[in-house]
Amino acid sequence: MFRDRIFEGRTAVITGGGTGLGRAFALRFSELGAKVVLASRSLEHLEPTAAEIRARGGVATVAPTDVRVPEQVEALMKTAYETCGSIDLLINNAAGNFLCRAEKLSYNGWKTVVDIVLNGSFFCCRAAFPYMARQKFGRILSILATYASGASPGTIHSAAAKAGVQAMTRTLAVEWAEHNIRANAIAPGSFPTQGASSRLWVGSAEEAGARVRERVPVGRHGRHEELADLAAYLCSSYADYVNGETVTIDGAATWNHPSFEWQKL
Ligand code: HXC
Ligand code: NAP
Hints:
Strand order of the largest sheet: 3-2-1-4-5-6-7
Structural class: alpha/beta
Bound molecules: hexanoyl-coenzyme A, NADP nicotinamide-adenine-dinucleotide phosphate
Number of strands: 7
CATH topology: Rossmann fold
Helix content: 40-55%
CATH superfamily: NAD(P)-binding Rossmann-like Domain
Radius of gyration: 18 Å
Distance between the termini: 39 Å
CATH class: Alpha Beta
Number of helices: 8
CATH architecture: 3-Layer(aba) Sandwich
Largest sheet: 7 strands, parallel
Number of domains: 1
């Protein structure tokens, strides 16, 4: 689908890049030629993905970082620049989530998720800006969720924070366009990852599969490669005129609220 190695000479900083969807972005961006910098709290999450990338001939750096701490985020960008020579692509993928009714959510529970998702994404953009502005090149991609534009009973903290990141994305797209920095977002539906299933999906794998078949018109979970290719497109020169957008990838689950018993027709 893409020219070979469209990200040759580029550096991609990927938060939460050791696990789940972040790992999928890291593998795909590396295949396409990017040097990748993987950032999250746990080296145990980062090292295996970095090793996998190196074993395939790619260049990967790990940078233990808590995105809630501005000084650590500054240090991440410094490491990325000093190790790789530029910071071209930033994927704000790190997140925290758990199921809790709004009235039972503690103040610290709310703050924790908002700190990771909303504040962490802003800190990363803010810390990457001087490098991207100096280069006159930057592509920022933030990973939302379909509920950023709707409601998400049971995850009010995440819904509010993701909606905030969406507004941030649109604002940065306007403010930083003059620096040739673009900001876009992806809103994924259901993609199987350990992080999501252990925290958000209740019941057995069979029950979860049945729920997905019922709710998602395409009849299955999304595949990691499908999401990674969309991310690559949005960070590539093919999408240079796409700015401030959120692209949904959910098999039409968002639109599946039929008013009538149409399936019996
Ligand atoms: C209620 C909870 C809770 C739970 C934590 N808290 N888990 N409250 N129910 N299940 C509360 C704690 O009691 C505490 O508040 C506060 O949240 C902070 O908890 P800590 O454990 O101290 O926080 P920390 O160690 O920083 O861990 C952050 C975390 C954790 C978010 C709580 O789950 C984490 O590290 N998550 C990272 C990975 C992740 O969540 N991946 C899922 C992404 S999937 P008090 O008041 O007691 O101090 C995703 C999919 C979206 O986003 C869409 C799917 C369709
Ligand atoms: P995941 O594997 O749990 O990913 C979350 C990542 O965030 C982990 O690598 C974690 O690494 C990192 N992280 C958490 N707190 C951090 C912090 N304070 N600082 C730095 N890194 C931190 O779950 P996932 O399913 O792949 O989710 C990836 C992204 O997709 C998230 O933004 C999520 O909201 C979004 N999403 C997922 C789905 C889905 O169905 N899976 C659907 C919609 C949206 P450490 O623990 O090492 O810090």
